[in-house]
UniProtKB/TrEMBL annotation, chain A:
GO terms for cellular component: periplasmic space. This is Bacterial extracellular solute-binding protein. Keywords: Signal, Transport. Belongs to the bacterial solute-binding protein 1 family.
TrEMBL record, chain B:
Coiled coil: none annotated. It comes from the Bacteria. It is found in: Cell membrane. GO terms for biological process: transmembrane transport. Its main location: membrane. Residues 90-305 form the ABC transmembrane type-1 domain. The chain crosses the membrane at residues 29-51, 96-115, 127-147, 178-203, 224-246, 288-306. The gene is sugA. This is Trehalose transport system permease protein SugA. It comes from Planktotalea frisia. Gene3D superfamilies: MalF N-terminal region-like (1.20.58.370), MetI-like (1.10.3720.10). PROSITE patterns: ABC_TM1. The lineage of its organism: Bacteria, Pseudomonadati, Pseudomonadota, Alphaproteobacteria, Rhodobacterales. One of its GO terms (cellular component) is plasma membrane.
From TrEMBL, chain C:
The chain crosses the membrane at residues 12-35, 107-131, 143-166, 178-198, 219-244, 276-297. Belongs to the binding-protein-dependent transport system permease family. It comes from Planktotalea frisia. One of its GO terms (cellular component) is plasma membrane. This is Trehalose transport system permease protein SugB. InterPro entries: BP-dep_ABC_trans_perm (IPR050901), MetI-like (IPR000515), MetI-like_sf (IPR035906).
Length: 444, 315, 312
């Protein structure tokens, strides 16, 4: 059944149109606005949504805001009860605020009535994008775009015999996908300043951005794997000894070492775009980035077409995790077109549409799609995507997440980039900042 | 006198004119003409200012509409003034202000002085020099991040070309010691022409006859420069400093695009810090107090400065 | 040409000219780099090391005005042969045009808000300047300083209550709200400048008009306005340049409908990574109108910049 449906997107569309026209026969045409970040997948969503427009008769408008101002702009919109967006593909950390401040419509009844089950989606994405409070069956979104931090590397460089040989001499092991973060650090240092085809190249492009969320999304990949915890698992908001545990200190020190010994000069304020640029222009051997960039890397004239490989965030001493990205799609409570917006979600949740979402460069979280037998082989990066999605961990999703994030951005940038103080001092400071936020919030 | 300014105005209008008025009286016209401006300024500047002052004594947060708003007295002010981070941003702002003004006045005045030598085509070159200040500061800041990239940007390669250093050996926006200068350079590039124009206006306002008289007294060119040119152009130089000072105290767009306040907090100017407090953390009460402190500072400094400027002018 | 002792010597002129032209050339480099980047391909724009010689392409301009999607084979097939030159350019990247970009809209917003606020500012400013110029107001200096002082406030500082006020009045993210705001910010400049211009118009003209039976109001718009036309035009340019380039208010108070180009341009992204050619193209197009005005009005630059403190 699955196979026949998925062999052709066109067949899927036909089935979908049958379903849709029966379900939406009595609706009248509405102008819907969907808000999301301005990035590659958003363009794919426009393409995907043409099918919805055809079937429902509604018109889709899109409001895409670049990542660096996405949170500012959209939270501003929600906080002021704006009606710009009917549908919001909001960042995973907004879910707490969206639920507690009543920005998002609770979707449980709608899911039940329309046979949409959260069991059909990857568990990590349900927890990450849809639930509030976490790990309770209260849903405010449908997982829309599964994303996670992973690594891209220059396979063509890694495979060069002379580099293989030099690496073997230096480290006594083959130059290959790193099995641990320490190995990754070594590989980055190995490439740092090396001459390849007449140009000086560097180790890795990592997240260091100051203004929005960049460095936090990067440094957590090291922290998690060295034993950092957001809070005491038995006592919520108890931070001391978890945020600043010895392991967390070691993880932060590793990230700084990676920055100091294995990244291009001047990469002090880099996030997704800058990392892509550095990788595409042949400056670096590896880049840390969200998985959404992988289709673009594969299609690139310089580094695509088999020249690049992909791997999930390597393990550390205490485990293997990766920073969760991605978003769920929610209906905005201030919208006057909620019925039509729900129609969109219903349409979007169909397996055929989710499959086509993957074909167009989107990243579905529907298990029927990503757990299909042929999925892992469908793209060179599909396996790395699956492996990464299995080890995700997310930042705070509290209503006060913005305050928590700003504090972390400042502490991490001050230590890793500006070199102020020690890792222990940075994390101790973070505990103080976060405790203050939770006190202000009345949670402590 | 309890008459309003406008009534007094009408009363003082020359009698022959007033007598011949048909239609609306002068007094009414004065009201009609000035009222919209004053009203708009009250509505968009003064009313918000008063509101800001009121909010600054509360713990109000825009993104928590359901929370109770409490009066907290001077607590916000205490917190700000005792926060070392705020003083650090003040320091960064002072560094930025002092160096941009110094460089822009020196280069701007030198350029104006040279242009005033009236060489052939000086008009055209003046116009060309002015182009950078016609760009949007946000766009300038954004593009300078590109120019400053050690690997793909132009700036490091140009410096490397002249000094022989390796372009990748330094990073203007990544290094804590260089970043404060990176914003100074970009701002100086953009706004030196502005200072130049004001200085040019000052130099052109000096009558030739004064130089001619000095020439008769056999005063040296050097002496003429220090005893005539500088004193006569001084009010204009001070005006340039005032305008650049106010503008750069408010500086937000160029720097936020260029460095985002980093690395760490090294280029976090007060406006950037204030924006974070007000529009990212949404601590409305706290940031209102912050805004009041900034406004009092700039208004106070500007008033003192304007008094000094007027004294210089009167001489 | 009369000989004057203050006329610099030939050598001095030559040296001064050389130094100024040298500075102009250096200062032009970043600007030319922006313009050149607009004509580079995305690969050339981030070339490592940077390239000075490159094959020019209009890809940046095409990308600026379009949204593109990475195409699957069946989409390419369905789309058929590229119809236009710009279709061809995007097709080479394995993408298809999915619609127009927001740049046109944002540019139009800049035009509406920029010209709208400039017009309103001129109307109010001329009236106020006339009143200040012609009636002897005792508190005039204080009022004028009050007007000037409104320009000293950091935009971020007033943005908080303005944000709240606009929200209550439904003016957030509207053209009207931004026009009113920019008008208020620019009024200080326009009142100061225009007062200077109107001061110079001899009062006798109006007196003559009044004797001829004009009302005060008729005298204002039939006699004073035409006389002040040049002054109004050059003041208008300065107000326009400010409103055209303003960023802080625009980024905080506008989101969808009324956003102007300055907050939009730095955020243009391509199908992967930042699309520097498109950013540069957007910046170049946005600069052109202001550049043209600057060239046309270079004679009035001095006056506008010194808030009318210079009489010429």
């Amino acid at each position: 059944m699955k196979k026949t449906l998925f062999t052709s997107a066109a067949a899927g569309a036909i089935v979908a149109s049958g379903l849709a026209s029966s379900a939406m026969a009595d609706g009248h045409a509405t102008d819907l606005t969907l808000c999301w970040a301005a990035w590659d997948p958003a363009n794919s969503l426009i393409e995907l949504s043409k099918d919805f427009e055809k079937q429902s008769g509604h018109t889709m408008n899109f409001e895409f805001v670049p990542w660096t101002s996405f949170a500012d702009r959209m939270l501003n919109e929600l906080n002021s009860g704006g009606q710009l967006c009917d549908l919001m593909i909001g960042d995973s950390q907004w879910i707490g605020g969206g639920a507690e401040n009543g920005h998002y419509v609770k979707l449980n009844e709608f899911f039940d009535a329309n046979g949409i089950s959260m069991d059909d989606f990857l568990p990590a994405t349900v927890t990450g994008y849809a639930e509030w409070p976490k790990n309770t069956p209260n849903y405010y979104a449908l997982p829309a775009y599964a994303d996670v931090v992973g690594w891209t590397y220059r396979k063509d460089w890694f495979e060069r015999p002379e580099l293989q040989k030099a690496f073997m001499e230096k480290h006594g092991r083959t130059l290959d996908v790193p099995a641990s973060l320490e190995e990754l650090r070594d590989i980055a240092a190995f490439f740092q300043g090396r001459d390849i085809d007449g140009t000086t190249v560097y180790g890795a492009a990592i997240y260091t951005e100051r203004g929005s969320e960049g460095i936090t999304m990067g440094v957590t990949n090291a922290l998690y794997n060295y034993g950092f915890e957001y809070e005491n698992p038995d006592k919520p908001y108890d931070l001391e000894g978890f945020v600043n545990s010895d392991g967390a200190v070691a993880g932060l020190e590793l990230y700084k070492e990676l920055y100091d010994t294995g990244t291009p000069p001047g990469s002090s304020n880099w996030y997704m775009g800058e990392n892509i640029d550095a990788f595409r222009s042949g400056q670096v051997a590896m880049q840390m980035n969200f998985a959404f960039i992988w289709p673009g890397v594969e299609a690139d004239e310089n580094v695509g077409g088999g020249n690049s490989g992909y791997f999930p965030n390597p393990a550390g001493p205490t485990g293997q995790f990766a920073q969760l990205g991605g978003q769920g799609i929610s209906v905005v409570a201030y919208s006057e077109k909620q019925d039509a917006a729900l129609e969109y979600i219903q349409w979007f949740a169909q397996p055929e549409i989710q499959q086509r979402w993957w074909d167009l460069g989107g990243a579905p979280a529907l298990r029927a799609v990503v757990e299909a037998d042929d999925f892992a082989g469908s793209q060179p990066y599909a396996q790395a995507f699956l492996d990464s999605m299995a080890i995700v961990k997310d930042f705070w999703a509290e209503p006060a997440y913005a305050d928590l994030l700003i504090a972390m951005q400042e502490r991490m940038h001050n230590y890793v980039i500006a070199g102020e103080g020690t890792a222990k001092e940075a994390l101790d400071g973070l505990v103080r900042d976060w405790t203050e936020v939770f006190e202000d919030e009345g949670k402590l | 006198m309890t008459l309003s300014p406008m009534e007094t105005a009408a009363a003082k209008t020359p009698a022959p004119l007033a007598k011949r008025i048909r239609g609306l009286s002068d007094r009414t016209i004065a009201w009609i003409f000035v009222a919209p401006t004053i009203f708009l300024l009250l509505a968009v500047n003064i009313f918000p200012l008063i509101w800001t002052i009121r909010l600054s004594f509360t713990n109000f947060r825009v993104n928590r509409p359901n929370n109770d708003v409490e009066w907290v007295g001077l607590r916000n002010y205490q917190r700000i003034l005792s926060d070392p981070d705020v003083w650090n941003t003040m320091q960064a702002t002072a560094h930025f202000l002092i160096w941009t003004i110094t460089l822009q006045v020196l280069i701007g005045f030198a350029l104006a002085f040279l242009i005033n030598k009236k060489f052939k085509g000086n008009d055209m070159w003046t116009t060309i020099i002015v182009f950078p200040m016609m760009l949007s500061p946000a766009v300038v800041g954004n593009f300078w991040t590109f120019l400053y990239q050690p690997q793909i940007g132009l700036f490091n390669y140009v410096i490397a070309f002249f000094t022989g250093a390796d372009p990748a050996s330094f990073s203007m926006i990544g290094d804590v010691h260089l970043a404060p200068w990176a914003i100074v350079i970009a701002d100086t590039w953009m706004w030196t022409p502005f200072v130049m124009l004001i200085c040019l206006a000052g130099l052109r306002s000096i009558p030739d006859s004064i130089y001619e008289a000095a020439e008769c007294d056999r005063a040296s060119k050097w002496r003429q420069f220090w005893t005539i040119t500088i004193p006569m152009a001084l009010p204009f130089l001070m005006l340039a400093v005032l305008f650049r000072g106010i503008e750069n105290f408010k500086m937000f767009d160029l720097v936020v695009q260029l460095t985002g306040g980093g690395p760490g907090n090294t280029t976090t100017l007060t406006s950037i810090d204030l924006k974070r407090e007000a529009f990212e953390k949404w601590r409305t009460g706290y940031s209102s107090a912050y805004a009041v402190i900034l406004f009092v500072t700039v208004f106070g400094l500007a008033s003192i400065y304007v008094k000094a400027l007027n004294k210089v002018k009167e001489r | 040409m009369s000989f004057s002792v203050t006329e610099p010597s030939k050598g001095t002129k030559w040296l001064a000219g050389a130094l100024v032209i040298g500075y102009a050339c250096i200062t032009l480099v970043p600007l030319l780099w922006i313009i050149a980047t607009g004509f580079k391909s995305p690969t050339d724009s981030i070339a490592y090391p940077p390239v000075v010689v490159f094959e020019p392409t209009l890809e940046g301009y095409v990308n600026l005005f379009t949204e593109r999607t990475r195409a699957t084979p069946d989409m390419l097939e369905a789309a058929g042969e590229p119809q236009t030159w710009y279709d061809e350019i995007v097709r080479e990247r394995g993408t298809v045009i999915s619609g127009p970009s927001r740049y046109g809209e944002r540019f139009l917003n800049s035009v509406i808000i920029g010209f709208g606020s400039t017009f309103l500012c001129m109307v109010l400013g001329t009236m106020a300047a006339y009143a200040f110029s012609r009636f002897k107001v005792p508190l005039k200096d204080d009022l004028l300083f009050f007007i000037l002082s409104t320009r000293m406030m950091p935009p971020i500082a007033v943005a908080i209550p303005i944000f709240l006020m606009f929200r209550n009045l439904g003016l957030n993210d509207t053209h009207l709200g931004m026009i009113l705001l920019y008008t208020a910010v620019n009024l200080s400049l326009s009142v100061w400048l225009l007062k200077g211009f109107i001061d110079e118009i001899p009062i006798e003209y109006e007196e003559a008009a009044l004797i001829d039976g004009y009302t005060r109001f008729q005298a204002f718009y039939k006699v004073v306005l035409p006389q002040a036309a040049t002054g109004i035009a050059s003041t208008a340019i300065f107000c326009l340049i400010f409103a055209w380039n303003e960023y802080a208010f625009a980024v905080l108070l506008t989101s969808g409908t009324a956003q102007t180009a300055p907050p939009f341009i730095p955020t243009i992204i391509g199908t992967s990574g930042k699309d520097w050619p498109a950013v540069a193209a957007g910046a170049t197009i946005f600069l052109v109108p202001v550049m043209v005005f600057t060239i046309l009005l270079r004679k009035h630059l001095l006056r506008g910049i010194t808030f009318g403190a210079v009489r010429k």
